[in-house]
Write a structure and sequence with these properties.
By secondary structure, the chain is mostly helical. Helix content is 53%, strand content 6%. The protein folds into two domains: 1-37, no CATH class; 39-86.
Amino acid sequence: MKGGAWDFTDRDPFYTSSTGKIKKMSRVEEIERAIEELSPDEFRQVAQRVHAIEEARWDKQLDRDAAAGKLDFLREETQATRENDLLKDWPPRG
């Protein structure tokens, strides 16, 4: 988006390190730099979007792990707990 919050064409993608060497910024550093310049409302919008992306990635990974059998131990533990009559209400009933 030319001229908008994500326009890096007028910014210098280089910085001087603590040792005095000029280095090219990484993508993450460029993103961090842009985030620091956001208004509070823009920051909130970006934070919400990043959170949504993180949730979607987590769900996909959980689905992959379940399909690969990596979570089978949870089902087995639950079945053993049920068979031994060790299940408890949560929250506990008072």
